[in-house]
């Protein structure tokens, strides 16, 4: 089976050497040595000021909304993984969908202002497939209307915008380090927080709001990353440049061989790439279903991602429309994309697609 992605498994001897150290120290969690090491190395690698590691990417979003004390309505995108939106509902917030741009698949910044009401407290855009949103424009809208901005940057590990880490924009950016993501810690995530005071508060919030041993200062939760997760992250981080390079080769091979009448994601010209996904959009859903069927018959598992468009989630109020997101969702397929995908397997995928479109 060739799946849409393949979790990167680092050298097992290296991972075991971390395990041995964890076993002999007896320290498994609560800001241990490897969580601190990983935090320090990611701060350098990503070139960010304040990074906080947590146990998954969904709770990173929930913490971001809590830290910024968001209330009422949130302007967000329907073209994303469900966690962007379910985390809002979980925190008692009300997602209002702004449609996406049909070429970049990111929130259409030109339509954001129309979605703002008295009750809006924030914009939560997603850098879809690692492609940067229209950051400067979103920045100016948020300032003008006094809204907070949380970027769901789960796909944007290592991406830069105008030469600076993409994570440094907005009030908070969040990352996911789930096993299926470009960089992973099995399960995990992070927040990059602009304001220093808020960063200090976040450090306490992830540990039940305990300030010093006997002083519980804030409402908190348990969102700590543990030492075994951090050890995985340290191993994967050693290889990340190689991983991204191999993915770039896979990307370029697809681009050189796939029929050019498919639609590829239009990149923001100020954004660097991390090759986290390889989405293609077909002319209509019928063609997509034919391609998907033919690929599966050959043992290839692409993924309809993101599908369905989230404005129709059954736990949201029903009267929301996002025709562009809905249309793209029905026609988009993510092809297998991972560092060890072979040219032979890519050829198989490409030939099936050529025959079915
Ligand atoms: C993966 C992902 C999340 C959730 O992250 P988890 O670590 O799985 O909780 C949130 N948003 C987007 C866009 C994602 O792709």
UniProtKB/TrEMBL annotation:
<keyword id="KW-0808">Transferase</keyword>
<comment type="similarity">
    <text>Belongs to the DegT/DnrJ/EryC1 family.</text>
</comment>
<dbReference type="InterPro" id="IPR000653">
    <property type="entry name" value="DegT/StrS_aminotransferase"/>
</dbReference>
<protein>
    <submittedName>
        <fullName>DegT/DnrJ/EryC1/StrS family aminotransferase</fullName>
    </submittedName>
</protein>
<dbReference type="InterPro" id="IPR015424">
    <property type="entry name" value="PyrdxlP-dep_Trfase"/>
</dbReference>
<keyword id="KW-0032">Aminotransferase</keyword>
<dbReference type="InterPro" id="IPR015421">
    <property type="entry name" value="PyrdxlP-dep_Trfase_major"/>
</dbReference>
<dbReference type="Pfam" id="PF01041">
    <property type="entry name" value="DegT_DnrJ_EryC1"/>
</dbReference>
<keyword id="KW-0663">Pyridoxal phosphate</keyword>
<dbReference type="GO" id="GO:0008483">
    <property type="term" value="F:transaminase activity"/>
</dbReference>
């Amino acid at each position: 089976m060739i799946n849409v992605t393949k979790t990167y498994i680092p050298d097992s001897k290296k991972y075991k050497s971390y395990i041995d150290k964890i076993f002999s120290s007896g320290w498994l969690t609560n800001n241990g040595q490897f969580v601190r090491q990983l935090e320090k190395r990611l701060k350098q690698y990503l070139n960010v000021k304040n990074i906080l590691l947590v146990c998954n990417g969904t709770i990173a979003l929930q913490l971001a909304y809590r830290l910024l004390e968001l209330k009422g309505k949130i302007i967000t995108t329907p073209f994303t993984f469900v966690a962007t939106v379910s985390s809002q509902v979980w925190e008692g917030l009300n997602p209002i969908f702004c449609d996406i741009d049909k070429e970049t698949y990111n929130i259409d910044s030109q339509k954001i202002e129309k979605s703002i009401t008295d009750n809006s407290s924030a914009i939560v855009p997603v850098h879809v497939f690692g492609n940067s949103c229209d950051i400067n424009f979103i920045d100016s809208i948020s300032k003008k209307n006094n809204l907070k901005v949380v970027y769901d940057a789960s796909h944007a590990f290592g991406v830069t915008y105008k030469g600076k880490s993409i994570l440094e924009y907005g009030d908070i950016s969040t990352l996911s380090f789930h096993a299926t993501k470009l960089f992973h810690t099995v399960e995990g995530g992070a927040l990059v927080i602009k304001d220093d005071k808020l960063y200090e508060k976040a450090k306490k919030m992830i540990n039940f709001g305990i300030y010093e041993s006997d002083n519980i200062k804030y409402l908190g939760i348990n969102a700590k990353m543990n030492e075994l997760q951090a050890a995985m992250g340290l191993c994967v981080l050693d290889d990340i440049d190689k991983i991204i390079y191999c993915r770039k080769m896979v990307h370029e091979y697809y681009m050189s061989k796939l029929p050019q009448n498919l639609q590829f994601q239009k990149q923001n010209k100020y954004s660097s790439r991390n090759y986290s996904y390889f989405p293609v959009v077909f002319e209509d859903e019928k063609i997509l279903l034919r391609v998907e069927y033919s690929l599966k018959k050959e043992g290839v598992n692409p993924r309809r991602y993101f599908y369905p468009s989230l404005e129709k989630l059954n736990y949201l109020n029903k009267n929301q429309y996002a025709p562009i997101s809905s249309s793209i969702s029905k026609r988009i397929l993510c092809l297998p994309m991972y560092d060890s995908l072979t040219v032979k397997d890519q050829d198989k995928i490409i030939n099936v697609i050529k025959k079915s479109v």
